[in-house]
Design goal:
This protein is mostly helical and 155 residues long. Helix content is 76%, strand content 0%.
């Protein structure tokens, strides 16, 4: 066993595996949002929970906004899954998750927590994790296994 390579891997990871990690995260999160958006758009009553959340958060035009948010999730999630216009899709979903965090998710946190416990609960919110993934994907790019990379290689 090559201890030097093992130690190097433990300290630095493996850059030749990075494209596969990007692919796994991009496709998984893209599919999640595409399926979620499709269920809201194409299943009877699918936008009702979104509408109710928007009304509770006092967002203007809740019915139209519910359809808009659902369409953004479906379209951007689909684009992200195949790796086409990935940065734009990530930005759209990033904004969606920031708004969801500020208007809905934060209100689910228990009141009266110490700042450290509040921060712990905040980082436990799935929306916050999605925001971090989108920032990472914007910075890293869609990876080698994407339509974006294929197009960029042709330019």
């Amino acid at each position: 066993m090559d201890w030097k390579r093992l130690l190097e891997f433990a300290l630095l990871g493996s850059s030749h595996l990075e494209p596969y990690a990007i692919l796994l995260v991009r496709v998984s999160i893209g599919l999640f949002f595409a399926i979620s958006g499709a269920n809201k758009l194409f299943v009877a009553g699918g936008t009702k929970p979104v509408y109710d959340t928007l009304v509770k958060a006092k967002i203007p035009f809740p019915r139209q906004t519910a359809y808009f948010v659902s369409a953004v999730e479906f379209i951007a999630g689909s684009l992200l899954t195949v790796g086409f216009l990935s940065a734009a899709a990530c930005v759209a979903l990033l904004v969606d998750m920031i708004v969801a965090t500020l208007t809905s998710a934060i209100s689910t946190l228990p009141k009266g927590l110490s700042p450290l416990n509040w921060l712990d609960d905040f980082f436990y919110l799935p929306e916050v994790l999605y925001v971090l993934f989108f920032i990472w994907l914007i910075c890293s790019g869609p990876g080698n296994f994407s339509i974006d990379a294929w197009i960029a290689g042709r330019l």
